[in-house]
Structures are given as C-alpha cells and as structure tokens.
Amino acid sequence: MSTITIREALNQALREELARDEKVFLMGEEVAEYDGAYKVSKGLLKEFGGKRVIDSPITELGFAGLGVGAAMAGLRPVIEFMTFNFSILATDQIINSAAKMLYMSGGQFNIPIVFRGPGGSAFQVSSQHSQALESWYAYFPGLKVVMPSTAADAKGLLKSSIRDDDPVIFIEQERMYGHKGEVPDDPDFTIPLGLADVKREGTDVTIVARSLMVPVALKAAETLAQQGVSCEVIDPRTIRPLDIDTIVESVKKTNRVVVAEESHPMCSVGGEISTQIMERAFDYLDAPVKRVSGADVPMPYAKNLEDLAIPDVNRIVAAVREVAYLD
Amino acid sequence: MSKQIEAPPEADQQRLQREQDQAKERQKTRLGNTGLKMGELVELYRQMLLIRRFEEKSAEAYVAGKIGGFCHLYIGQEAVGVGAISAIRKDDYVLSSYREHGLALAKGMSARSVMAELFGKATGCSKGKGGSMHMFDKSVGFLGGHAIVAGQIPLATGTAFATRYLGTDQVTLCFFGEAAVNQGAFHESLNMAQLWKLPCIYICENNQYGMGTSLARAMSLSDIAQKGCAYQMEAEFVDGMDVLAVRNAVKRAVERARNDYLPTLLEIRTYRFMGHSMSDPGNYRTRAEIEKYQERDPIKLFSASLLEEKILDNKKIEEIEKGVREEVEDALRFADESPLPDPSELYTDVYANPIQPGRK
Question: Model pTM?
Fold first, then answer.
C-alpha cells in the first residue's frame, strides 16, 4: 500500500495500462507536452512518446469522434476532456456514435473507449465550468458511467474502464485531485465496474453519496455519530450499471435513506436511485427518501453563493435527522 | 403547395456545360487508357446497374409498406460510389452517411443482406436493428451508414488514425453529402487529418441539395473543393456522372494516402434523381432541372461509351440487365421470407461486456 493522491492514482492507472497494451493511447487537450491541465498525465509523454500520448487541438467533437472511429478499427482510446463541461460539444459522438454503434451494427462494432476528465464543481469557476453531467450520460443505454471518490477507487476503476470493451464515461472530481488515500501497489489491482462500496457501516440511516459527496457524507456521519445516530454511507461508484442491490440491502437494515449529490435535482441520478428504492423497498421505508442536491441554479461565481449551491455537511446532517424524525 | 424555385446560379450552369463537354471528350478517348480489363469495365457497369435496380425495387417495397422509416435512395449517384470503391481494396474502410445502400453494395455486401436489413429482418446486415440508415459489414470493411449529418466524418478520421497507428497501409473513404460541409465536424476532421497526416479520403458527394435547400441557399463559398486550401489539403473537383473520372481521382488520392499518409478532399459533383427520401414531394426544384441532369445519367453515359468501344453489345447489355434483375428479385424474396428478429434480440448487443451489477 502507498498513500497517494487521486491525481497520482489516476496517473498510475494510465501509466500501467499504456504499458500493458500497445493499443491504448491517450488523447486530449494539453495531455502531452503540458503534462495535463490537472497534471493527471504527468510524465506520460516522456515515458510513452508522442505516438501514444497525443495533444489534440481544441476540437472536442472532432477528437471524441476520432476516438470512436479508432476504436472501431481496433484501438482502445482514452480520450481526456480537460473538463467534462467541454464534453457537451462532443455529445453527438459520445451518444450517437459510441453508445449506439454496437447495437445498430447488430453486434459487429463494440467501442472500447474511455472518455475521462474532471466534472462537477471546482473552485469559483462559475456557471459554464461547474457542472455535474452524470445523469446525461447515465441516461443512455450503451454507455457505462463511473465516478470514483477515493484514490484506490480511482485507480482500480480507471484500469477496469480501460480494459472494458464498452464506452465508459469516467468522471473525476475537480476538487478531489489532491485527496489522499491508500492504494494497493499491485499493478493488476482493479475494481470491477458495477459494484457499490460501503464506505462506512451503520444501522440507523443509509446515506447514498457519490464523488465529492462521499467525503462530505462521511464527515456528516462522524458528526451524527456524536449525536447518537449511526449512518451507513454507500458509494455506488458506478452509476451505470447501478448496483441497486447493495443500496436496497442497506435500506432494508436502516429503513431510512438520504441521497446526496452535487448535481441539480431535476432528472438527477439521485432521483433515479430514490425511485428504485421506492420500487424495491417501499415496505421497508420508515420515512420518505430525502434528497440533498446542488442548488437548482447555474453555478454562481461569488464564494458565498457557490458555497450555498453545493451540499455541505450541515445539510446532510439536517436531512439525516429529518428522516430519523429527530427534530 | 408547389412553389417556384430559383434556377441554379449562372456560374453553376456554365460549370455544368463545361463538365459535360469535358466528360464527352474523356469518354471518347479514355476507355483504352484506364488500365482496366474489359471484364473490369463491364463489372463497373454491372454494379451501377445493380444499384439502380436495387434502389428502384427499394422504392417499390417502401411504397408497399415492406420498408419502414426513412429511405434515402442513391439513384443518379451510382457512378460516385462504384467509381470510388473500385479504386480501393477489400480491407480498406468505407464510412458513409445514411444514403448508403449503393455504397454498401459497391463495397461487396450482398443484395440479400442489404435488402433484408431494409425489411427489418434478422438476416439483415445489422440483424434488423440498424435499418436503411445503419448498414454495417465488418467482413468487407463497411463501417456504417451514420444518420447525423457529418457524424461519420470524425469517425472516418479515426479509422484512418488507427490504420496509421497500427502501421497498416489501409485507407479510409469517407462519403458525405455537401450539406455536411457546413457542419463543424467536417472542419474539425479535415484540420486533424492534415495536421496529423491521416490516410483518409473525404468524398463530398455534391448532389446540390441538402434535403430541400439548394447549395446556393446554404453555403457562402459553394466551391467545395476550394475549402481544402483552408487546411492545405489536396483537393479536386470531379464529375460525378463519369464513373471513370471518379475512379481516377480516387486512385490518385489513394496513392497519396497509401504512400504518404496524406488525406484528400474530393468534391464529386452529382445529382440525385429522386427525392431526399421517399417522403419528399420535391417542390424545391423543377422537372426541367431534373431532366437536364438525367440527360447525363451516369449509367447511360457509361453504357454508351462501352457500346461505342465495342466492349459491350446490346445482347450483352440485355444479359447484364437480366442478371441484375434476378439478383434483386432474389434479394427481395430472401428479405420477404426471412424471419423477423427474435423478441429476445431487443436486449442483445447493448453492451459487448454486459455487467451484472453487484457481482464481484
């Protein structure tokens, strides 16, 4: 085990997979000579050369589509979006090409590609640079959507995503690149897609959280423990396919759920999780599922307003107390 | 209600006349200089005729309710696909827009598998899941009809990237209509292809209408070949009614691609004799305009020169006609008798590696 940042864990995953398979290449804006806008690809150009680590022009639709075409012809591209905000320009190729190619070709062309980069809120970068887009991508059959919250998950899940034969949307969190955690040193360490992780065990209330909300939920659970409330924190890690069984199992034990997420509430992944809990564990619920979401506004710039727009420990604590009928 | 439309701009009329004169000259002198054997010339003719008859029967089957959805016919444009694809190998890649039945046939897909796909049958090339706009056949390097205008252009750039990356000498032909040239995907792709020297040949089939909107009403610079210079890319204007002119231009481009990984932009001027799709009333152009282009029907032009050079005679033409009609009838019968996809197929091929969530 080594204690490293999420940034370093992702870098290790990329390095190991580039070394493992000649067909893997990394392409994106500033991934090579600049060492990555967020330094996730640091040193990779030097180690693997310009054939494998490629700076693209600022042309998201173009290089996303180029990646899908390269995958059709036998390569395994890793396409970095400097941030997922810019993937919006590439959605035609992600959705219409990557997600549907296998199906509409009657099973002939699978697309082993990873689209990765940071998503969610950052630090005061305002509306167009602070968006949680996972519900967009999770909507589409044919895509897999992954959102790690720890260094070990980041490494193990990115390696599995690169080895996977389908298109994977791999959303990192801009604020979390510096978060540290223990990561196994084994170069064959992977974490399977589609497997939720219980980040903290508890008995009174289940908190379902992903990405940035995982450390926030864990802090809330700490606070609540001091108040005599035992919380179980579940991180689905993969949004599509969703390991709803692990969540439902927890709900059957605690009978109360809070779903925390950075994204806007309308049509969110949290809304989907809440519905599936209602469908599968209605009789076990002692209170309605409570969602804690990002504010239903474009992200503001001013620090105080930005803080208000992102769920924090206090809001999760209040939500847990509400479903536990403590206040 | 039908509305009077403007005639094509004067410049285009002049160009058309020039093209016609040049084509006549070429047809006269060139058959002996193609390097093609007689049998190969006849095969070009047969393929064009097969596509024509196939599409005519597709139209009938569509009207009869056997084919659903959209159906974009290739009638009038046969020389482009046949001429271009005759200049590449089986292991080269072809990607196209949704007007791809003819291209699929030219790349070597069977009339049966294409017709069965149109009929939405399990025996179709895409197992009945793609339909008219999404024909695929990995075994002959046909990488799809793609139904978002210009969507195939970055994909083709990617297959060319992959062949260069893997060190093969395969090339990619990317077919698209002229309306795709106004999309960002076209410009983003050409920029990357020239920047990175990718062996992709961009074939703009300029049939002069993006659905019902004429080129003149949609493009500030309608000389499409000229756009190559924005990327320092080799570009050529080609008469798309002349199958040999198309073949020769593509051959030159293929050489550049195979030898030096250089991309090319070809503007191949053609004309679709039918509507945009089967549901197009066509009131944006005049009957006279269509007839003017039909005088230069690519199949008639080519058969005339083959007859003149005594490569074909009327008896042989009849034989080819008969063979082609039988092939299409056989395809129709096959499609009609084939089973629908099994209901269980609804949920197959969504993922290559389906994951049962929650399983370690």
Answer: 0.95
